[in-house]
Amino acid sequence: MTVDLPKHVIKAAFIDRDGVLNHLVDRGDGFRPNGVPIRWTAPFNLLELNFKPGVREALEIIGRKGYLRILVTNQPDVATGHIDSSEFARMMARVGELPLDDVYVCTHRPDGDCACRKPAPGMLLAAQKKHGIDMSCSFMIGDMESDIRAGRAAGVRTVLVTDTLSVETSADHQVSDIMRAALLLP
Q1: What is the pTM of this model?
Q2: With b meaning 16 or more CB within 10 Å and e meaning fewer, what string describes 12-31?
């Protein structure tokens, strides 16, 4: 008689970069790419890439809880020319010093038609396929509704990181920082 043992469940915390791991950059009122005012952006160079307090510790807690820590980030500033590709490589090398298990980056423009750019779930689904992730046990941690929509489309639970905890969102949970997200995960 053979007994089927339960398979080891592989779960993941999909984590956005800008606004979750690092601070956004205040460009002021005069920054108007393509005539559209945008005050807060991703960092454009290594000097502007400043991690939020407790990021490394939060990622370590997530790992100890048995989650793969997978970065999924839209970085259109490469395609739009706001970030030089060599500077972007230096920035991502610094991000790579964090305890992450894998990294997925979409550098396509917002007006492009791609399956990887959040809110599309392409990066999450690619990671699922590569690592054999059980999405029903996994989470998306992001600071924008596009992150939450990508998580929902991929079938994971969602955590919105926001300074304003009363924001309208479809996220399952709202927290003020990644440490609170790490402590929230079962």
Answers
A1: 0.92
A2: bbbbbbbbbbbbebeeeeee
